């Protein structure tokens, strides 16, 4: 009995709502995983809602003065909150302030930002009243009808179908079912308010199914053309060695060409110096040697690592064609079973070179016209298609020129059709940022440091959804985004503000970005970003 008396003194008639609030709180606590990081926000939001409600109840009851009347209104707490406000600001001002305080507490409790309120209202009431970009998007779509093509629903797909981090409804096999064990840890649902997610503009947007039905078979490397056996030494190499030796004799340098290492496009000639001859005497003859071998420039390597010799690298007059099939079938490439391994080519010693995109993970490819940017990107894509299934690697291809990447339209690895409109490319990059945040939230909740560890836990059934959640956890695929003409995209779609978020070194989440464009006065080479 004394509990009821104390509660009525404190909160008045609101005591009848207390059991409902306690039951709802208990249900929420049982259905969610405890998260100490959100506890202060939840406590502050609940306190703001409760205090604002009691203050409004006090004003609604006419601001009673006696304790007996307060027991039928909002109690002492409502009097302490609503009384000073009504006396100092009048009830007409105090009531809106308390209502705003309750709304702010609701935002804190749900983890919703002010910028997300219009999207939430539009999602609840199904209206375009709060849609800020509708007119602008409508005008843009009217002007781009001729270019809609395959990517007409790119933005809708990126915003709706893949916002939860999983791309397709893949039927669960026997190995994917989590064990019926009470000790299996659960991963909480990600916070809704951390990423800005827009509702789709079209209600009839269909889910884009890009994964083939049934098991996916990797294409055979026999489809690629194999190269010819490498040349050891040709008559052109003998002529170059003689020309270099003649230059050394003319300038009275005690040195001789003792051998050469032939690569597909460059040959390195080894020059051994006589006793007491400085290396600088050889390097000072760089332009003279280039003149003697009739080439624009030569490269000096003084000394060759591991050898007592100076290397002179000269371009071959009879270059060899390096075939991608030879690179992908090389033992060094086959030993690495990672799905993001790509073939690059041959080095000067004739060894095949491959690289793992997961270790980079971002690239900036630039060069003059005809320098091989498109060939490199095509080789990279073919390498991924011959090594990875759609469940392992997914791709987003952005091609504003509409001609470079069109041969890859329709491959099952694509998350969306090839994007050709700059505005939709910006939306795809925004979705990728949200996808990275989603993966980091899942890795944090499951207490792992890399997406591979998270996938291993999902496959073993060590991660399950909370009780009552409809989410089905599946391994995350790697995501590769390739953007052609990044400079034009940054100017037309104004994606500069999104680029730092996309290009940050988040290799643990395994999203790789490849940008390539023609050079300007400030960009003339390609290098890892």
Helix content: 25-40%
Q: Name the beta content range.
A: 5-15%
Question: Which class do the helix and strand fractions yield?
Answer: alpha/beta
Q: Label the CATH architecture of the largest domain.
A: 3-Layer(aba) Sandwich
Averaged pLDDT, please?
75
**CATH level-3 fold name of the largest domain:** Rossmann fold
CATH homologous superfamily heading of the largest domain: P-loop containing nucleotide triphosphate hydrolases
Subcellular location: Cell membrane
Pfam family, one: FtsK_alpha
Region (Disordered): 173-204
Subunit structure: Homohexamer. Forms a ring that surrounds DNA.
Written description of the protein model:
It is a single chain. With 529 residues, the chain is an alpha/beta fold. Helices cover 40% and strands 12% of the residues. The strands form three sheets. It has a five-stranded mixed sheet, covered by helices on one side. Strands 1-2-4-3 form a four-stranded antiparallel sheet. Strand 5 and strand 6 form a beta hairpin. The longest helix has 25 residues. The chain is elongated, with a radius of gyration of 33 Å. The chain starts with a helix and ends with a strand.
């Amino acid at each position: 009995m004394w509990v009821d008396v104390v509660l009525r003194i404190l909160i008045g008639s609101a005591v009848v709502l207390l059991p409902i609030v306690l039951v709802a709180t208990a249900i929420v606590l049982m259905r969610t995983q405890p998260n100490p990081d959100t506890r202060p926000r939840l406590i502050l939001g609940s306190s703001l809602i409760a205090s604002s409600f009691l203050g409004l109840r006090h004003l609604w009851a006419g601001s009673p003065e006696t304790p007996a009347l307060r027991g039928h209104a909002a109690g002492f707490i409502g009097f302490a909150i609503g009384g000073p406000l009504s006396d100092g600001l009048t009830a007409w001002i105090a009531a809106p302030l308390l209502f705003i305080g309750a709304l702010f507490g609701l935002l804190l409790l749900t983890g919703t930002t002010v910028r997300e309120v219009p999207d939430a209202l539009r999602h609840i009431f199904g209206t375009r009243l709060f849609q800020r970009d509708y007119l602008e998007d409508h005008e843009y779509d009217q002007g781009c009808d001729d270019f809609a093509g395959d990517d007409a629903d790119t933005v809708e797909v990126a915003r709706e179908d893949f916002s939860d981090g999983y791309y397709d409804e893949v039927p669960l096999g026997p190995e994917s079912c989590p064990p019926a064990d009470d000790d299996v840890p659960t991963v909480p649902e990600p916070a809704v308010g951390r990423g800005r997610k827009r509702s789709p503009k079209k209600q009839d947007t269909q889910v884009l199914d890009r994964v083939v039905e049934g098991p996916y078979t990797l294409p055979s490397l026999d489809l690629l053309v194999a190269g010819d056996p490498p040349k050891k030494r040709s008559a052109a190499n003998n002529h170059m060695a003689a020309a270099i030796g003649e230059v050394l004799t003319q300038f009275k340098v005690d040195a001789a060409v003792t051998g050469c290492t032939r690569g597909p496009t460059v040959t390195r000639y080894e020059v051994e110096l006589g006793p007491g001859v400085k290396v600088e005497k050889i390097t000072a003859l760089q332009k003279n040697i280039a003149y003697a071998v009739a080439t624009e420039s030569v490269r000096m390597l003084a000394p060759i690592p591991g050898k007592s010799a100076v290397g002179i690298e000269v371009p071959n007059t009879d270059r060899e064609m390096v075939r991608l099939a030879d690179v992908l079938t090389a033992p060094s490439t086959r030993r690495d079973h990672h799905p993001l391994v790509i073939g690059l080519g041959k080095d000067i010693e004739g060894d095949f070179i491959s690289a793992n995109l997961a270790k980079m993970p971002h690239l900036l490819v630039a060069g003059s016209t005809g320098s091989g940017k498109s060939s490199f990107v095509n080789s990279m894509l073919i390498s991924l298609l011959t090594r990875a299934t759609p469940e392992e690697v997914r791709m987003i291809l952005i091609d504003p020129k509409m001609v470079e990447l069109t041969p890859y339209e329709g491959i099952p690895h694509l998350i969306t059709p090839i994007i050709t409109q700059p505005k939709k490319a910006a939306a795809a990059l925004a979705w990728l940022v949200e996808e990275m945040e989603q993966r980091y939230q899942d890795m944090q909740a499951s207490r792992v440091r890399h997406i591979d560890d998270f996938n291993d836990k999902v496959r073993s059934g060590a991660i399950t959804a909370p009780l009552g959640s409809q989410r089905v956890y599946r391994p995350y695929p790697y995501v590769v985004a390739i953007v052609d003409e990044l400079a034009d995209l940054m100017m037309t779609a104004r994606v500069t503000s999104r680029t730092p978020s996309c290009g940050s070194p988040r290799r643990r989440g395994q999203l790789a970005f490849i940008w390539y464009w023609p050079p300007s006065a400030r960009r003339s080479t390609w290098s890892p970003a």
